[in-house]
UniProtKB/TrEMBL annotation:
PANTHER family given in the database record: MANNOSYLTRANSFERASE YKCB-RELATED, MEMBRANE PROTEIN
GO biological process: lipopolysaccharide biosynthetic process; protein O-linked glycosylation
Species: Tahibacter soli
GO cellular component: plasma membrane
Keyword vocabulary terms for this entry: Cell membrane, Glycosyltransferase, Membrane, Transferase, Transmembrane, Transmembrane helix
Glycosyltransferase keyword on record: yes
Keyword Repeat appears in the UniProt entry: no
Top-rank lineage group of the source organism: Bacteria
GO molecular function, one term: pentosyltransferase activity
Listed name of the protein: ArnT-like N-terminal domain-containing protein
Membrane topology: Multi-pass membrane protein
Main subcellular location of this protein, as a coarse class: membrane
């Protein structure tokens, strides 16, 4: 049975409905003030092409084009997509408030955090971007919220939607796969170690439920992807080349020769293979490592070989990989690195003529000048994103740990689950991000605001909960 003391602070639906209405009003005003849609190359082009034609991108989410098809193509308007992604923002803010309450934060402070999340620069900006960030962050926050709800209540039924939301997160943001998989056992683990007298058999059974639900959800996603992409069941057809791009500076000539590729191939590369700052160029430029391998081996064989080369290069030089990733983290403080990245993140490259014409004809949107102008939300993002999102990246884990240290015993399991989830998110970014990119930090901001509320505001107390019926 669920823990009878776990829900001592559960607001009635009425405050939540009022909060939802307030958040919708915030988004409505923001949408009227600035409905501008922006595009990031080449992700936005791939998503739009996929949404308009049914093509399945080999190297990006297949689920987000479906979201675009339902949210924009069905209405013949990209403004409808902004509305749909703004609703994702409302749901994200509400779920963050729910997480905060489950961490023991008084409802009024949780509601304030939700309002700030709704107005947060990255949230507003990516609601206007044809990118998977807004629905992807919603799915990640849903995963964490379900896990924390389990940690508070020890009710196994929360573990099933947690697994499904985790698979949806991966379908939208493949880079979050390690975070989602790592979180699968965190809620039962947190409940076990944070309770005075844990029921070992019960928690072991719940851990088994979490594992089975996660396995089924992810296997189902892989089979669905294989069916849609007409390939074998997998997470992403281009996963091998992405892995190789991550470790490209560690690749040696003998790694290529081991798998039948001439070492002379490396001499034909345009970007400097040893420069970690050029890993993105190795992935996407015609004379980069990935496209060169594909020309030598063909697309399918290149994926297999890339996976093997990446594994061997990493295995042989783990210290070098960790040092390279640490360097990428410190690059967030190097303006010569962050300035061009920010400029690219806000969408300063024009769409191709074909996509621009298709968007005008099918969606009634003129994108000919979007890349050359900065709308109010874009200017807000440019001004606030570098310091704010960098703070969120480096402060998220310490804030969550501070919230854990400060948590009363009845909130300890939920606080431990939250701390482990946020530490996992930071670790995932450290290990699997190949470039400085502020868009990768989009999920950090709402969780950082929850952590601030949990670490520094007054806890929901029994006198407050007495006015909030179970």
């Amino acid at each position: 049975m669920p823990n009878p003391t776990a829900d001592t602070f559960r607001p009635t639906p009425h405050p939540w409905l009022a909060l939802a209405a307030a958040l919708i009003a915030i988004k409505l005003v923001a949408g009227i003030a600035d409905p501008t849609v922006r595009f990031f190359l080449g992700d936005s082009e791939s998503y739009l092409h996929a949404a308009l034609t049914g093509w399945v991108p080999p190297d990006r989410s297949f689920l987000y084009p479906m979201f675009v098809r339902v949210g924009a193509v069905a209405f013949g308007s990209l403004t409808a997509l902004v509305a749909a992604q703004s609703l994702c923002g409302v749901a994200t803010a509400l779920l963050c408030a729910r997480i905060a309450v489950d961490l023991g934060v008084a409802f009024r402070y949780a509601a304030l955090a939700a309002a700030i999340i709704a107005l947060e620069p990255a949230q507003l900006f990516y609601e206007r971007m044809v990118m998977a960030e807004s629905p992807g962050t919603l799915c990640l926050v849903t995963t964490i919220a379900c896990g924390i709800a389990y940690a508070r209540r020890c009710d196994w039924r929360w573990l099933v939607p947690m697994a499904v939301a985790g698979a949806a997160t991966v379908a939208l943001r493949m880079s979050l796969l390690p975070v989602v998989l790592g979180f699968a056992l965190v809620p039962p683990f947190a409940a076990l170690f944070a309770r005075k007298r844990p029921s070992w058999p019960r928690l072991a059974l719940h851990a088994a439920v979490a594992l089975v639900a996660t396995a089924f959800a992810h296997a189902g996603y892989q089979r669905l992807y294989g069916h849609v992409a007409q390939t074998e069941p997998t997470y992403l057809r281009a996963s091998g080349t992405f892995r190789l791009g991550l470790v490209a500076p560690l690749v040696k000539p003998e790694h290529l020769e081991r798998y039948g590729v001439s070492r002379d191939v490396l001499a034909t590369l345009g970007p400097d293979l040893r420069n970690p700052l050029l890993r993105e160029q190795q992935l996407w430029l015609p004379d980069g490592l990935i496209h060169t391998l594909k020309r030598e081996l063909g697309d399918e064989r290149a994926e297999v070989v890339a996976r093997k080369i990446a594994a061997r290069a990493l295995r042989e030089n783990i210290p070098g990989f960790l040092a390279m990733q640490a360097g990428s983290m410190t690059d967030y403080f190097v303006r010569t690195v962050t300035a061009p990245r920010l400029e690219d993140d806000v969408g300063t490259r024009p769409l191709s003529d074909d996509i621009r014409n298709a968007v005008r004809e099918r969606l009634g949107h003129d994108a000919s000048r979007t890349h050359a102008t900065f709308n109010p939300v874009a200017r807000y993002f440019i001004a606030a994103a570098p310091p704010w999102l960098t703070f969120c990246l480096f402060a998220l884990a310490p804030l969550a740990v501070a919230a854990l240290v400060r948590s009363p015993r009845e909130y300890r399991a939920a606080s431990l689950a939250f701390a482990l989830a946020t530490c996992g998110l930071v670790a995932g970014h450290f290990l699997f991000s190949h470039i400085v990119s502020f868009r990768y930090l989009h999920p950090f901001a709402p969780l950082a605001l929850v952590a601030i509320a949990a670490a520094f505001t007054r806890r929901g107390d029994r006198s407050t909960s007495a006015t909030m019926r179970n």
